Structure formats: structure tokens, C-alpha cells
Amino acid sequence: xxxxxxxxxxxxxxxxxxxxxxxxxxxxxxxxxxxxxxxxxxxxxxxxxxxxxxxxxxxxxxxxxxxxxxxxxxxxxxxxxxxxxxxxxxxxxxxxxxxxxxxxxxxxxxxxxxxxxxxxxxxxxxxxxxxxxxxxxxxxxxxxxxxxxxxxxxxxxxxxxxxxxxxxxxxxxxxxxxxxxxxxxxxxxxxxxxxxxxxxxxxxxxxxxxxxxxxxxxxxxxxxxxxxxxxxxx
Length: 234
Description:
Blueprint: E1 10-23, E2 26-39, E3 43-47, H1 54-61, E4 69-74, E5 77-78, H2 84-94, E6 95-99, H3 110-121, H4 126-139, H5 155-167, E7 173-177, H6 185-200, E8 204-209, H7 212-215, E9 220-225, E10 228-231
Parallel strand pairs: 3-8, 3-9, 6-7, 7-8
Antiparallel strand pairs: 1-2, 1-4, 4-5, 9-10
Helix pairs in contact: 3-4, 3-5, 4-5, 5-6
């Protein structure tokens, strides 16, 4: 079992983060003064019903939404206020994304899909990027599927490729948005076992879900409701 979150260094720290959208000129608050810490190596689930603000929170954590008030620290560095190019670089290098719909490019092989974030980063030679992608895909149990296209894989295999791709740059944080939503219960359980193993190896994971059973595999469950955190506050 990993050490308690209180004993670890914060990987993510939000302070008084609020987000308001405008619809037809009318302000619509989505988040209200969120304070949140995710410790390095922690496995946290963000849970809430549709419209609770959990997706908005995920977009802020993933450096996708920048139109918020408040402070965001990632790995001890204040990233709120960074320009779009700086955020794009950070997003590529330091955050791995796993989505419900996988977002694999259909024209590329498994190996090519998994290598994309590393190739985009341009911090390693292409062959090194492909070697790392191969290693990650093999870790996911798909070493015999490297040249397959996504349509030749099962849904669970596609999600394994997506997880391998998310890990290829050795990110600080792995963000998973409803990663089992498109899977049957048996396959979903297998994917959650992978996240559990990654956590045991020290990965920092934030999983967003509306499903209590999925959330229960996390080390901590953070309840979001009406744009506020009602449980699991740091």
C-alpha cells in the first residue's frame, strides 16, 4: 500500500480556482473557489453527476482550459498564466491522457499511435521514441499487436494501447476520463487492474468517473457537486 497522501509531496495544487462560462452573454458558474491537492504517487478519483463540474475540473488539470481564476501548481511550479505554447509543451511532456473513446488514429498502427506523444515532444531521436512505445505496448500485453490497426483490436485492447501511449513520455500525472465507460464489466475490471498496478509502481493518477464501483479502486475519492468539492478535500 502506498504511503498516505498527507505524507507525500503535492504533485497538483489548486488554490481558489473558479471557472465561469458565458452563454448568450449570461455568466454560468461551473467551479466555485476549488482548493485541491493531489499528492505525488496518489491515485485519486474525481466523482460527480453530469453537470457537477468534474469535466471542467479535469480540463483545468489537463492544461486544456485556461480561462479560470485562481492558482494551479503542477510539480511545484505555478502554471496558471503560462502562454498557450508553454502549456502545449507541458501537456505533451508531463500529462498523459486516457479517454473513454480511446482517440487512436485509425490509419496508424498500434506502435505508431503509441509513439505519437514522444515524437511530438522532439526530445529524443525517433528510433528511441519508437523503442519506448514498443516497451509500453508490450507492458500492456500487446507485443504481438504492434503492426495492427485500431479496427483490428478489441475495445479493451484499444484502451490498453491508449494507456501505453499516455505513458510513453513518462508523465508526471496520468489523467483518465471515464476510461471504462465504453467497456463491458469484465474488460473494465482488467483496465482498472492496470491502473492499480501503475499506482503501485508510483504513478500519480487522477480518474474521473460517475461510477462508484470504478471510483472505489482509487486511493481517495473526491466528490464534486454543484461546482464545489464536498468530500476528499486536501
